[in-house]
TrEMBL record:
The keyword Cell division does not apply. GO terms for molecular function: transmembrane transporter activity. Keywords: Cell membrane, Membrane, Transmembrane, Transmembrane helix, Transport. Belongs to the drug/metabolite transporter (DMT) superfamily. Small multidrug resistance (SMR) (TC 2.A.7.1) family. The keyword Nuclease does not apply. It comes from Saccharothrix espanaensis (strain ATCC 51144 / DSM 44229 / JCM 9112 / NBRC 15066 / NRRL 15764). GO terms for cellular component: plasma membrane. This is Putative membrane protein.
Length: 106
């Protein structure tokens, strides 16, 4: 269950990051509320995952997948630039997440 909780937490993490952009400095009410709910949801499900996972592994995977998901959706939704160097760096994050998953052994 801890991997499922972590996956749900990362969905909330991506929603939080994208929502923060939409709040325009927390001056827009609905996006601000969605962003705060997403932040709370992400932290809640991360806390459930950390019942079993080491905090270093769980948190790093949460932020790593959240970062990559945010980048992908930022490119698709906001037309942000994706250069070769960025792809290489994000690939390193993905490999690190996979390595941590394998090394966690749970």
């Amino acid at each position: 269950m801890h991997w499922l909780y972590l996956a749900i937490a990362t969905v909330f993490e991506v929603a939080f990051a994208l929502g923060t952009n939409a709040t325009k400095g927390f001056t827009r009410l609905v996006p601000s509320i969605v962003t705060l709910v997403a932040a709370a949801g992400g932290i809640y499900f991360l806390s459930l995952a950390l019942r079993t996972l080491d905090v270093g592994v769980g948190y790093t995977i949460w932020t790593g997948i959240g970062s990559v998901g945010t980048v992908v959706l930022g490119v698709l939704l906001f037309k942000e630039r994706l250069t070769g160097a960025r792809v290489l760096c994000f690939g390193a994050i993905v490999l690190g997440v996979i390595g941590l998953r394998v090394a966690a052994g749970v």
